[in-house]
Design brief:
InterPro entries: 6-blade_b-propeller_TolB-like (IPR011042), Hetero-Diels-Alderase-like (IPR052998). This is Major royal jelly protein. It comes from Gluconacetobacter aggeris. The chain is mainly beta. It has one domain: 6 Propeller (Neuraminidase), CATH 2.120.10. Helix content is 0%, strand content 46%. The protein contains no helices and 26 strands. The radius of gyration is 18 Å and the shape is globular.
Length: 330
């Protein structure tokens, strides 16, 4: 895989050493929320303007065994966070919230073991999907009671989502590890009307069509690409591609949203760069020209796999500006 997309990488914020940021969401005002999975934390990162890096603020720490996994913004400044281990859906109402004020998330839904919520997305108003990286399936979550409650049922289970794959557990530290994840990243493309997902255990990038009337899967999942060590992803439906983090490979790949296309290419990290160590997730900025060009990525600094020099760096939030106009790959 060779790099063909010029990209500028800027460090936006740093987190304590050994932090393992797992997912993020960019808010409408340009500030960013980040979850650190094994630390069970939610961080707030101020709008990254002026002097960089900015200083993140710890927003919340979940209870023991509630590993923070992913965000869904179901309505403006209403965020849902899925936790793994003690699998719970939590609701954060940040309407009117100002940095420094306490937050009081509420419990919306408890999953039965051995559920392992991971990546998630909004499918339609009041309807979310979440990848279960342990059971190898996608849950459909329907919000009730004005968003204060929810119901869950299996949306799709498929062999391309299975966990394990003969891989050893993922080790966060000497005392903390989790089974190697199956289905991991999850995004819905409203323009293409497909759900896109990655499966870490099987090195797969897949899609499945969505029936617009029932919001149920329409047909079988389709293979898009084989990509090693896939984690989370974001979509550029204008260009017809996905950007996919390859967490332990310190890279971001780009792949077509259509089956039968040419193979994936490198979007960043090939050749290796010290600015991109352990990318876990990716989301577009909300500036007027950010979509498809300016992305934010949390990196773990080498917690899961050290870089070539075997030195751990601080976890960071970085900004990547893709020079699409200079891209010669399409």
């Amino acid at each position: 895989m060779t790099r063909s997309i010029p990209a500028k990488i800027t460090s936006i914020a740093e987190f304590p050493m050994h932090t393992m940021p797992e997912n993020l969401v960019v808010r409408a005002d340009g500030s960013i929320l980040v979850v650190a999975s094994p630390q069970r934390e939610v961080w707030y990162v101020p709008v990254p303007t002026g002097d960089l890096p900015v200083k993140p603020i710890l927003l919340h720490t979940f209870a023991e065994k509630q590993l923070a996994q992913s965000f869904v913004e179901a309505a403006p400044d209403i965020f849902y966070v899925f936790t793994y281990g003690d699998a719970v859906l939590h609701r954060f109402d940040l309407r009117g919230w100002t940095p420094g004020e306490p937050v009081s998330p509420t419990k919306v839904l408890q999953f039965e073991p051995p559920a392992g919520p991971n990546g998630s997305c909004l499918l339609a108003p009041g309807v979310m999907l979440v990848a279960d990286c342990v059971e190898g399936l996608i849950w459909r979550i329907d919000l009730t009671d004005g968003g204060a409650g929810a119901t869950a049922r299996v949306w799709l289970k498929h062999d391309t989502m299975s966990a394990g794959g003969g891989h050893p557990p993922v080790k966060f530290s000497d005392t903390q590890q989790v089974p190697f994840p199956g289905i991991n990243g999850l995004r819905y493309g409203p323009k293409t009307r497909h759900v896109y997902y990655t499966t870490s255990s099987l090195s797969l990038f897949m899609r499945v069509a969505v029936d617009q009337q029932t919001l149920e899967p329409a047909g079988e999942p389709e293979h898009l690409a084989d990509i090693e060590n896939v984690d989370d992803l974001c979509l550029d439906e204008n260009l017809g591609v996905a950007y996919i983090t390859r967490h332990p490979d310190h890279m971001i790949a780009r792949a077509s949203l259509e089956p039968g296309s040419s193979g994936p290419i490198s979007a960043a990290g090939d050749p290796f760069t010290d600015a991109l160590i352990g990318p876990t997730s990716i989301d577009w900025g909300h500036g007027p020209n950010d979509y498809g060009r300016v992305a934010y990525v949390p990196t773990d600094g080498g917690v899961i796999k050290l870089p070539p020099d075997k030195r751990l760096r601080p976890a960071r939030l970085i900004r990547i500006e893709f020079d699409i106009d200079a891209d010669t790959s399409h």
